[in-house]
User: What shape does this take?
Amino acid sequence: MKRSVTSLLAGLGIPTLTIGTDFTGALVLATPIELEFGADITTTQWVLNNYALTFAMGMVAGGKLADSYGRRRLLLIGLVIFVTASLGCALAPSVGWLIAARAAQGVGSAIAWPSILALAATWLSEEKRGFAIGLVLGIVTFGNVIGPALGGIASGLGDWRAFFVINLILGTLSLLLVPRLVARDTQDWPEERIDFIGIALLASAVLALLYALDVGADWGWTDPRILALFIVALALFSAFPLWEKRPASPLIPLNLLHGRQFQLALAANGLVVPAVFLLFLYIPQYLQKVYGWHIFHASIGSLPLMLCLSIFSVLSGRLYGTIGPQKLLLFGYTLVTLGCILITQFSPAWGYWGLVPAMILIGTGSGLSVGPAGTIAVGAAGQARAGLAGALSFMVHLTMGAIGVGAGTAVFTAANARHLAAGLERLSLKVSPADQGSLIGAAPGSEKVRAILDSFPAEARGKVETLVRDGFNMGIQDAYWLALALAALGIVVAFRLEEEQHTPKGG
Assistant: This one.
C-alpha cells in the first residue's frame, strides 16, 4: 500500500476501535449498574438499547452530511460529541442520566461511523474496496472483543465508571490523530439542504417501534398505548417514502432505495444481527446469574464469539473477491442458523463449554456475512453516495439489533415470568406481582432480591433461586426462536442476490 493509504487506515483505526469497545464494553456493566442504582433488567437494557437506537436513528443523517459537507469534518464533529458524552457517562449520578449520556454517545458514533466507512470505501481502488471495509469491520469487531474485558476490568477494580473514562481517553486520542493522519477533503461537496423532516419521520418511526417493544411486556401487548405506538410507527414508516418525493435533496434518494440489490444487501446486513446482539447482552449476564461467575470472568466469557467475529470480518474482506459475496453470505447465515438452534436447546447442565459451539457458529457466520453485505450496498450506490449507503446499511444493522434486543427481551421476560409464576404456585408461595417482576433476571447480590428471598421459609429459598436461574435459561431459549427465524430468512435473501454484479474483478 502507499504511505498515504497506510496513514489513512491508521488514522481511522483508533476511532473505529473506540466505537467498537464502547458498544460491547457497556454490556457487562448491566449487573453493577443494576446494583448501584437499584434498577431492573428492563431498565438497564436501555443502557445498550438507547445507544443502539440513537446510533441507528442518526446514521443516515450522518452519512448524508458526510457526503455533502466532508467526511473528515463530520468524523471530527462526531468524535467531539462522543468524547463529551463519555464524560457524562463517567459522571452519571443516576441511571436516567446514564441512559441519556449513552444516547448522546450514540449520536456521536452515528455522525462519525458513516464517515469512517466512506473514507475506507473510497480511498482505495474499487478492487480493494472489499478488503478496506473488511479491515475496518475487523478493527471495530476487535474493539467488540476487548470491550467486555475492559468493562470487566473496570468493574473488577471497583467502579464501572472507569470504563467510560477509557472511552474518554480513546476518543481524545482519536481527536488528536485524525487531523494528523487523515487528509483534508479536497473534492467539492455539493451544497444540499438538510431534509430535517425526513430525519424526524425516520427517527420517530424507529423510536416508536422500539419503545413499544421495550414496554410491551410490562404494559401488556393489547394495552391501548402499545397498540397506539405500533400504529404510529407504521404510519411514520409509511409517510417517510411519500415525503421523500417532495424535497429537492431528500434524505434518501428513492431510486437508491428501490434498487433490488441494494434492498437485498440491507436485509442481509440486518437479519443476522439479533442473534449477535442477544449474545452480547445475555452471555455475560448468564455467566453471572446462572453460573455465579465473577463479573471479570463473565466479561471474557464471550471471547469465542468476539474473536470469531473479528477474525472472520477481516477474512471476509480478503475472500470477497475470490469466493464472492453470495457464497460468503450463504455459508455465514447457515452457521448462524445452526448456532441459534443450539441455543434454543441449551441446558444449564451443559456448562459453559456447552455455550462455546454456539458462540463460535454465530460469531463466525456473522463475521462472514456483515462485511460482504455492507460492501454490496456501498458498491451498488456508487462512490458519490458511499457515506449514505454505508450509513443506511448500518442503520438497518443497528436497528435490527435494537429490535432484536427489544423483542428478545420481551419474549425473555414473558417466558421467565410464566416459569417463575408456575414454580411459585407449585411451592405454594404467594408473591406480589411487583416482587415477581424483581425476581425476573435478578442480579445476584441485589438488596431487593435478597429481601424477597429472606421473606420465604428457609427451606424454600434455594428452590426459588433455582427457579430464577432456570427461568433465565428458559427466557433465552424462547428469545432465540426469533433470532433463528430471522437467520433462516437471511439464507433465502442470500440466494436471491445476483453475485456477478458485485464481485470485484481481479480480487
User: Anything to note?
Assistant: The mean pLDDT is 81. The two ends are 15 Å apart (CA to CA). The first helix runs from residue 3 to 25.
